[in-house]
Amino acid sequence: MEQGQIQGDEKVASTTLLRRQPQQTRGQQRVAAILDAAEQLFAEIGYQATSTNAIAIRANTSIGSLYQFFPHKKAILQAVVARYHQQYRDLIETILTDDFFFQPLSSSFDRFFSALITLHATHGGVRAFFIGANNSSEFATEAQQVHQELLTRLDQLLAARAPGLNSNKRALTLRILYTTTQSLLELSETVPGSDQVTVLTALKTMILAYLTPLFDAEAVE
Fold first, then answer.
1. CA of 184: how far to CAs of 69, 159, 202, in Å?
2. Would you indicate the residue range of the signal peptide (predicted)?
């Protein structure tokens, strides 16, 4: 496991209900292994069917070691979700740079979609949990906040690239982009691997066909 991943897990763990904060690398690795194992099981059999014993076995650690760090299964879920949200925020910071809309759109969205797909593929357990959760879930508020941070950042970038668009037009543009991207990314996760490329190519084609005339018109005005 990479050191950056361990440090990221340590940062996430500090915000959750840990019984004991791991101070040494070995402890940090153990916490990361527990989170990885839990997320895999959540994706495979669901949160309710997953036991702490099963998580410990998958993480190749003892149940006593698991309980040294996490008081119960819900605390593990909280840490798994927090890690996903932190990595989503990292994606926003690293991919959505100030020049995002000033670079060739094809290249910018290639990077963006690649990062999103990797994040989704890596955290299938979290996504499975959210898909199965209802809107009253205690995690829904945090998820909505992260999504709002994404939209806020895109709005800032769009305003810089197309200053002639007022806030209402930008909001509609972002709603179209977000809804289209979310729908087709979800579709890409349900089709065979050979068809995923087709879906993602269609997604990029639609977005470029929508944004290019918008930016061209802005340049003329």
1. 38, 25, 9
2. none
